[in-house]
Amino acid sequence: MSANRIKVLCVDDSALIRDLLTEIINSQPDMEVVAVAPDPITARDLIKRHNPDVLTLDVEMPRMDGLDFLERLMRLRPMPVLMVSSLTQAGSEVTLRALELGAVDFVAKPSLGIRNGMLDYATEIAEKLRAAARSRPRQARRPDGPGPRPLKAPMVSSEKLIIIGASTGGTEAIRQVLEPLPANSPAILITQHMPGGFTRSFAERLDRLCQISVKEAADGERILPGHAYIAPGDAHLTLARSGANYVAHLDDGPPVNRHRPSVDVLFHSAASQAGRNAIGVLLTGMGKDGAAGLLEMRQAGSATLAQDEASCVVYGMPREAVALGAAADVLPLEEIAPRLLTLAAASGRTQRV
User: Where does the UniProt annotation locate this protein (predicted)?
Assistant: First the structure.
């Protein structure tokens, strides 16, 4: 075993899934499965024995629920965890809870759980394991803990827009940006890399937590202040004009930067349609999607922000944006929400009301 290879422990009660993950991972030159476990109790001992770099974890398993195990693990021995999730409504809700508890990311199981279906995911699984191995494990948010201190927004132009892009680690980062925002915040458009079927649950969860209204974007709907619109997991979200109003547009065009929805597609539309009225924000994520689009927004007069390295789960997309000179400000995650309101107020005074 090479000391430089990523050591992976796979925890799943399905022997088929364990075998498929082992085949996929061991076919990569820089990683290997050091052990597999059919349940969390067995996994607990294997973690002590093998000290893996990353854990893949199923949710529904015998002897201990995967979420219970994850919560204990992140409290007692924080480590990168990649969830292996079913593409169902219940599966998406459980997966979002796992991300709240500290899982780095998730990969969806093939809908039929068949061998060829899982092998189609080989590249995605490998990339997400590499990102997880480089990530920063974080403590889970306590469900009974105090929420963020609500912020207050001064009067801003109704034309102001906040445009957010994120990938790995983004579900929690987006929550931390949106949750303290007041109900009179500018309208927000969001692209988060996530499969179809998960974004609706994500929007509904945020809507319960936030003072603003949060929903999955619908094609042709008017963009309103105090609302956040999340790109569906199988369509690009773009900003368009209809007379004096902004509207959302969805399309199923080809992936950009291998993603649909793509952050660059959303940022490009914001640069061309909103210009100085837009504020662009690039949060945690692997890859480079959004970096070129954020630069285009800055060149069009938009205020632009990127999350700093220390607060990112994966400092990939923001790093690329900073390298291009696309981000006018680079901030810790907890400073982004108040900065957005300051920018909206300052620029709002110079815009038509």
Answer: Cytoplasm
The angle that helices 170-178 and 199-209 make with each other, rounded to 10 degrees, is 30
How far is 264 from 276, CA to CA, in rounded Å? 17
Q: Are residues 231 and 326 in the same domain?
A: yes
Residue 193 annotated to the active site: yes
Residue of 193, 249, 259, 268 with catalytic role: 193
Q: Is 289 annotated as catalytic?
A: yes
99 found inside a domain: yes
Contacts of 188 (CB under 8 A, 6+ apart): 161, 162, 163, 164, 178, 212, 227, 228, 229
The residue from 85, 157, 158, 167 that is catalytic is: 167
**Residue 99 sits in the same domain as residue 17:** yes
Residue 228's contacts (CB-CB under 8 Å, 6 or more residues apart) are 178, 187, 188, 189, 190, 206, 210, 212, 213, 214, 215
195-222 pLDDT tens trace:
888 999 999 999 999 999 999 999 999 9
Find tokens 């991972």 and name the residue. 25
Instruction: Quote the number of domains for the chain.
Output: 2
In a domain, 353, yes or no: no
Q: How far apart are CA 199 and CA 147, in angstroms?
A: 23
Query: How does pLDDT run across 271-306, given as a tens digit for each residue?
Result: 999 999 999 999 999 999 999 999 999 999 999 999
Domain membership of residue 175 as a residue range? 161-348
* Judgement on whether residues 124 and 74 belong to the same structural domain of the protein: yes
Instruction: Choose the catalytic residue: 289, 302, 308, 311.
Output: 289
